[in-house]
Amino acid sequence: KTQVTEELVRKKSEHNERLISTLEEISLHQEDIEVIEHIGNWCRDLKILLMQSNLIGRLENLHKLKRLEYLNVAINNIEKIENLEGCESLNKLDLTLNFIGELTSVESLKNNINLRELLLIGNPCVDYPKYRDYVVATLPQLTSLDCTEITHSERLQAIRDLVQNRAVIVKRQTDQAIERDEQRIRVAEQQSALAEHCAGFDNEDDRLKAFWQAKSEHCPEIRTEIARQHRLGRQRHEPKSALDPPKRERHLFAPNGRPYNLNQAKLPFNFQDEADHYLLQLEVYRHLDTSLIDVDVQTNYTRVTVKKKIFQIAYNDEVKPDATVVQRSQTTGHLQITLKKLQVNEVLLSAKKSAAMQSPAKVGPGKGGEEKLGGVVDISNICPPDDLPDLI
To answer: Residue 173 class from Cβ within 10 Å (0-12 exposed, 13-18 middle, 19+ buried)?
Structure first.
C-alpha cells in the first residue's frame, strides 16, 4: 500500500514551490492510500484536500485542519462518517461512491455549521426509505444534497417527519449491517478459495487470468484486492533497475558432464529404484494441458519441462530411452514415467528375493509391542559415488 509520506506531499506541492507548511490545496488522488495520516500535522493551512479514488477505509486524523473548506474522499472504502467535528470551516464534503451504510453517522456533522454541500451518491444508504428527508432534517445548515438544492418547503416537511423517518432509517441500517457482516465472511471464504485455486498455477499469467475471471462482490475487500493486483501488474512491467542483482544462471550439467538434479517448478515427486527399472511419479498440475509438458529421456537422466520450467533427475544405472513408458492420470493429472534399465541390477534383485524369503520375520512385534525390522540393505544406493556433484 501507499503511505502518505513527506516525499509524496512535497511532490504534489510543486505549485507551491514544494513548501508544505503553507500549502492551501493538494491533490492525492489515485495513490492507493489506505490511511489518512500526517497531513493534519504538516499542512495546517489546507483549504482544499482531494483524496478521491484511493482505498481509504476511515475518516481520521483531520481534526487539526481548521481552515479546510472542501474535502473530496469520493470512491474510497469509507463505511461511516466520523471525526470531522474539528474541521470548523468545512463547506463541501464529497463522499460519492463509498460504502456508507450507517446513515445516522451524518449526525456527527451537526456542529459543522459551515457545511453547505454534501454528496452521498452511490452509497448503500441512499437506497434507504426516507433517506433524503432524514438528512435534510438532520443537517439544517445544508443548502444542497447530492447536487440537488434543498427547498424551504422540503426542509419544513422533513423536520416534521424526522422522528418517524429516523426510526425507519435505524431499522434499515441495522439490516444492512447484518448483511455487511455476512458479506465479510462470504468474501473472506471466496478469497481463500480463490487463493488456493491460483496456487495450483505455476505461471503468473494463469494466476492473473483466474483472478480476473473469478466472480466477485462490490465491497471494500474486493476493491483493495483489485488495487493490489493492478499494483503488482505495474511493478512487473516497470523496467528493472541496473542495480538489481542478475538472476542466478541455472546449470543443467556439472563441469564433469554429470547431469544435475533440478526442480525449478518445485513439483512434488516420488522416485523408486527397482531391480529392472526406475519409476518416476511427478505431481504436475491437474488442469495443466498435456501439450505444455515435454519429456526428454536420456540414458543417464530424465528431463521434464513443465511450462518452460525444468525438472531433471539423474540416475546411476543406464536406461533404455526407447523402452520408456510415459503415462498421465486422468483423475489426478500426475505423470508416471517407467524407465527400463539397460541391465538388471543384480544386487537389488537378490536383495528383493532375500527380503521375500524372510518376509515373515522381516517385520514383527518385538518386546513391548515395538516393531522389529530386518532384511538386506544395499549400501550402494545410500552412498553416492565420489564424482557425484552437489545438487541444486
So the answer is: buried
